[in-house]
Amino acid sequence: MYWDRDVETMERSKLEEIQRKRFQQVCRVAARSPYYGKLFREIGLDPNGIRGLSDIERIPFTTKDNLREHWPYGLVAVSKEELIRMHSSSGTTGRATVIFHTADDIEAWAQLMARCLYMAGMRKGDVFQNMMTYGLFTGGLGFHYGAERVGALVIPAGAGNSKRQIQLMHDFETTAIHIIPSYALHLSTVFSEMGLVPRGTKVKMAFLGAEPHSEKMRRRIEEIYGFKAYNSYGLSEMNGPGIAFECPAQNGLHIWEDSFFVEIIDPNTLKPVPDGTEGELVMTTLCRQGMPILRYRTKDLTRILPGICACGRTHRRIERIKGRTDDMLILKGVNIFPVQIEKKLMEIPGVGTNFQIVLEREGFNDLMIVRVEVQKDFFSGDLKQLEKLRRKIVEELKSDILITPSVDLVEPDSLPKSEGKAVRVIDKRKD
Predict the structure, then answer these.
(1) Do 176 and 308 fall into the same domain?
(2) N or C: which end of the chain has fewer CB within 10 A?
């Protein structure tokens, strides 16, 4: 039931003492980085003077902008010779955020993932098919190494190629999968096209990640496939997957407090809120050596769930992420911002001053339609000219946001506005 019983069921007082000691150490390590070293000097903070967790409020929040502004090595706290791995955020807005790991960091991450997967029921002898993207994205390799630590046979299938995924599931008797929720629904239609039924596999558990999804979608996936689906939470700045995970009770996600210190703040006042109150999740790495991050504002909205979990683990639980404090869109596992699309559109001759993003769901696939106002002289009746412009917009957006949108060209001043402001996003997706 437990990968590491002593840690997972540790008394709260002992767990908090571990957090205190690791927080003291991580502040000293962080001070070796150019960014935090300068920050500590500016605010007059001596990292050797950190005594307890309450001192964390003396440290300013770290944001994604801070990471971008100090690209690429500004938050690295060791020599480059000690770094063995780089990962990048899945977002494509401006300059991506990058995270660096030492060998010990990678091992600790793998152990956290093993803890998650074992908690959900994975064991030696399971066949794990990883349908996530490998490479700079953290999701693929994070689950891969965790499953290997557990002792499962890992099939690094990667993303896409649905018929091959199904063939692999049947041929190798896959028992566990890692999959994007929307792709799980799409894959069920491919089963039907092949004359097969999703319940005809040996898969008994699935790990859902990379995009937000509702409880209704999770249950629908479970009904279609007949397996149990577990929610996971992670972000690249904090390692990637393995930060928080569901146990079999499926009553919130256990966040591993021996490795991360968690705060929930009011995103407007930036003050802490009581347990049980929804706010923005703020996280501090407690063990990472290569690139420690202190008080990182995730922009994710959740709350600490009160009470003790029936599974016996003492690490607190967070509720499923409710949304974000910013306007970021997540489509097919990629982070997209409206301002990013605006910037690209404004670079294209012939594009007008307004646009609108429409998100729809066709079957089990999420679609993006970008409606673009065109300058008046482009509506001269030259259809070839309009089609050339439409294709140009599709190509430019695809290269920037990594998603191929549909593009509709509309007349100037035809898109709706609300209180004088452009209505940028219309989300028509329903569970």
Answers:
(1) yes
(2) C
